[in-house]
């Protein structure tokens, strides 16, 4: 009989999930390993060798650890549900002129849903993942907080987790740094795995070329959107572009036209296939409107509360005032912010605590 119960551990074959499984085993949980096949690289059409969490090598690495540690391991094919939700949304958002964040959707709507469903089927009370984030409790609620290792902190991509998900989740790496995790992996005898690199690409775009992915995914897209206008902030036509879905807010490189001075994408107008370019100061925004909000630390995000708003993964965040407006949150930045991109996530922090988050709808 296990000391703490039965836990389903998401195992990608990487360092973090491997150490997660080992730590849960050491802590006295009865571990069941699961590897989710989310994407088939053979169908991606990219030019990069299959790597990452869905590759055969990674699946074998996860299975080997499970055999070594003496616990069951299952492989679950969730390609259909992943594709229907995450990839379709990814494509639809770019076609709508927005910049999606597929990792947030995958974590909150696919991975956790799949894990909980399999956990129930396998009589597991808990699920555990290798995310670097804390789970804290206050006001009778569970919420995400930043990890000890701020260089690896993943709280930004977990803002959408429900109370049920948080209640059953365990993050054993929350109080560890990446070097500590690597050393532990090495000390346990997994020398090669301890040196394994990290992947920062979107899993279904392994060559990091999202433009080519969109062209392969949407038949006739390139011909349909080619030849649109670049305009300046005054509305003057200053060049031709390759198609509005192939640009993102704040983009400077890869515009394909030389202007004699740095120019940035400041707005995307999908209805007219127009991309607005401006100078760096034209990227500055005073605020944003956020929809699809999930409140974490409080049952409802307090009206008028001050919080640090993070608008992209590597953004240091900006002190802001949050106001409730129907089903949305109006965010007034207390300092100028550049490159607010519709479709990206805005996450609100009180210190290290996530009080909630949502999807950026627009800016002003």
Helix content: 25-40%
- Our estimate of the beta-strand percent is 25-35%
Number of domains: 3
The CATH homologous superfamily name of the largest domain equals HUPs
Count, helices:
9
* Top-tier CATH class of the largest domain: Alpha Beta
> Structural class, from secondary structure content?
alpha/beta
Q: Round the Cα radius of gyration to an integer and report it.
A: 22 Å
What's the CATH architecture of the largest domain? 3-Layer(aba) Sandwich
Distance between the termini: 58 Å
Which word captures the global form?
A: globular
The arrangement of helices and strands along the chain is: EHEHEHHEEEHEHHHHEEEEEEEEEE
Mean of all residue-level pLDDT scores: 91
Strand order of the largest sheet: 12-15-14-13-16-17
Major sheet characteristics = 6 strands, antiparallel, barrel
CATH topology of the largest domain: Rossmann fold
Low-confidence stretches: none
Count of strand segments: 17
